[in-house]
Design goal:
Blueprint (H helix, E strand, L loop, with lengths): L3 E9 L3 H15 L3 E10 L5 H8 L4 E5 L5 H9 L6 E5 L3 E2 L4 H10 L4 E10 L5 E2 L4 H8 L11 E2 L2 E2 L3 E5 H6 L12 H11 L3 E12 L7 H18 L2 H18 L6
Parallel strand pairs: 1-2, 1-4, 2-3, 6-11
Antiparallel strand pairs: 4-10, 5-11, 7-9, 8-11
Helix pairs in contact: 1-2, 5-9, 8-9
Length: 262
């Protein structure tokens, strides 16, 4: 019997200090039942990441970009080269436990129309799941509302691109990530397109992945995130919704200070 195949796509930018542990975890995460392919796209790192990976993990296919093209575009570069039946988008600061990949694939296969799946993420990063943004939710978060409780296993609106699994054919059919997103928002957009296509997005907390991440919301990061959200509303929601969010965020800016791009 031909084993199930999976292509893991890792995008790096000055990630030499963390990517080794990520790559080392993949072999045990796959187990003997999976044929594993790893593609790493480096976005013009200045710390020698590509050379270090080639020297220490020669089986990894490394693609070097001369400039930083952003997360979405880099993922799509590798998606076009991937040969696996499944594709996993994985941040370089993530660590997978033994058997994690096989367990995630088995869970996604239970869905009649599988789209995307994320495990629980533990560490310093944001939650692995979310609800689609509305003006009310954005305002509540900006004003410091308590986070929503973690859902149980099952369908959710969207999952984070830090560890996102999907059938490669389905992801390609939908065009992969939207290249217009540089960083942040591309996962939200893809999950919305999955939902529009009748595909299920699953949160699977029975598998836990360590994601070092960063949950500190400094002003510059907050601007980039809200800029991506505005792009999402412009692309995926009505003009009225986009204008309402645009105005709402600017009123918050005037009240709280700071800036909002786009």
């Amino acid at each position: 019997m031909t084993p199930t195949s999976i292509s893991v796509i890792v995008v790096t930018f000055r990630s030499r200090d963390v990517v080794g542990a990520c790559l080392a975890s993949l072999q045990t995460a796959a187990g003997p039942g999976l044929a594993l392919e790893v593609l790493l796209v480096d976005n013009a790192s200045a710390d020698g990441t590509p050379g270090w990976v080639r020297a220490n993990y020669p089986a990894v296919r490394v693609i070097e970009n001369p400039v930083n093209v952003g997360f979405a575009r880099a993922c799509n570069q590798a998606l076009g080269l991937a040969s696996g039946q499944y594709v996993l988008f994985l941040n370089p600061d993530a660590r997978l436990a033994t058997g994690a990949l096989e367990a995630m694939i088995q869970r996604l296969r239970q869905e009649p129309r599988p789209g995307l799946l994320s495990p629980r993420l533990q560490g310093g990063g944001p939650p692995a799941w979310g609800r689609f943004p509305t003006l009310g939710r954005l305002v509540a978060r900006r004003l410091g509302a308590r986070p929503e409780p973690e859902p149980g296993e099952g369908p959710v609106d969207w999952v984070l691109g830090a560890c996102m699994l999907g059938p490669a054919e389905v992801v390609r059919e939908l065009g992969g990530f939207d290249d217009d997103y540089f960083l942040y928002g591309e996962d939200l957009d893809l999950c919305d397109r999955m939902a529009a296509a009748g595909r299920t997005v699953v949160y699977y907390p029975l598998v836990t992945v360590t994601h070092l991440g960063n949950d500190r919301w400094d002003p510059d990061r907050l601007e980039r995130v809200y800029g991506a959200v505005l792009m999402f509303f412009k692309k995926r929601r009505s003009l009225v919704s986009y204008l309402a969010v645009w105005i709402g965020l600017r009123l918050l800016k005037l009240w709280r200070g700071g800036r909002i791009e786009n």
